[in-house]
Specification:
Helix content is 49%, strand content 18%. The protein has 99 residues and is an alpha+beta fold. The protein has a 3-stranded mixed β-sheet. Strand 1 and strand 2 form a beta hairpin. Helix 2 packs across helix 4. It is globular, with a radius of gyration of 16 Å.
Length: 99
């Protein structure tokens, strides 16, 4: 019974706030995948997460400071990949993961 309530709570098709969070997380995961595929194979694991902010900033979370530096050189490639996915970014910001 409790597991059914949890499933309903996390259902992205529900109108609640948790459904919104699940939908947003899925979109971020899809964007991260699209951007990762646009990079050379040896960049696997460089991007931890990606998001497009409302003001148009494409924010990339890099796995380490070294990856962040390399990803900054790939900003145009990342912007083009995001545009190819139907998004409209105007700038690329690379940040380093806190973990």
């Amino acid at each position: 019974m409790a597991s059914d309530k949890l499933k309903n709570l996390l259902n992205p098709n529900s109108g609640g706030e948790l459904g919104d969070i699940v939908r947003r997380a899925r979109k971020m995961g899809e964007l991260t995948h699209v951007l990762s595929k646009a990079l050379p194979a040896d960049y696997a694991g460089a991007i931890v997460a990606a998001n497009l902010r409302e003001e148009g900033d494409l924010v990339i979370i890099a796995a380490s400071p070294a990856w962040a530096s390399r990803l900054r050189y790939e900003a145009e490639t990342l912007l083009e990949a995001a545009r190819g996915a139907g998004l409209r970014p105007n700038a690329c910001r690379v940040r380093v993961s806190q973990s």
